[in-house]
Amino acid sequence: MTLPSTTLETTSAITPKRSDLARLLKRHPLVLTGAGLLALLIVLALAAPLYAGDPGDMAPFKRLQQPSAEMWFGSDSLGRDVFARTIFGARTSLMVGLLSAACAAFIGLLIGILAGYNRIFDSMMMRVMDGLMSIPTILLAIALISLTGPGIGILIVAIAIPETPAVARLVRSVVLSVRERPYVEAALCGGARLPKVLWRHILPSAIPALMVQSATVCASAIMTEAALSFLGAGVPPEIPSWGNMIASSRLYLAIAPMTIFAPGICLAVTVLAVNLLGDGLRDLFDPRAKQRR
After folding, report:
1. Which residues pair with 81 in a beta bridge?
2. Which terminus of the chain is more solvent-facing, meaning fewer CB atoms within 10 Å of its CB: N or C?
3. Which of 109, 212, 117 is nearest to 167 (CA)?
């Protein structure tokens, strides 16, 4: 026995229509601002080799210069172009943030769905998640990086692991709620296999909450990467990063403020853009927010 009408109604309630998206952008212009800023940063970061100079090119006789037509943001203590390093640093921060969020979302989704449907796996894996959540993210990341050395790959893994428990718990709570609904029970009684039920009925219900949480994880990952790089435990010094740019220029704030202001402002704008986008997704997918609108 199947309930196609119920399934369609449920799916339409979960998936926003184009009219909902247009209404959201009209009533919440900050969402469009956040998405536009994030898209602009991604385009600028990807096209950096086309218009920005070599971020590692050192010119000691040009060290700590003020902004000029040659160097828009001035130069740092080694004579490197701050503008080029800021733009290339965006590639590092955005890559770490997006890939960390993607890894945490994928692993958390698998754990959450399995934990929501298997009591034995739930009782075992949720205790592991509780243990990970009790450890501060930066301390756990520093411990993992200290075992292998700095690098972008290990940095992504070190940030994704502490962020996974929050995603897994969120997905698990959605699965526990959705699996008791009539259309899911009807599908199981009609002979549908569990993987098919998970794919067609459970997963679409978890995707909206997962998207909102992923935006939060992405913003947190960008901040964590900057903090780790500032402490010297993030990306290697030869790779431009907003965190290590701020760390290496903190002694020259009085005479070359742009060496800190440029990466700091870009970091703040990027995190703000991701958070605005996450808030917009929450308003779009939250049924109570729709009723308030």
Report:
1. 75
2. N
3. 109
- pTM for the full model? 0.79
For the chain, list the domains and their CATH numbers.
Answer: 26-253+269-292 (1.10.3720.10)
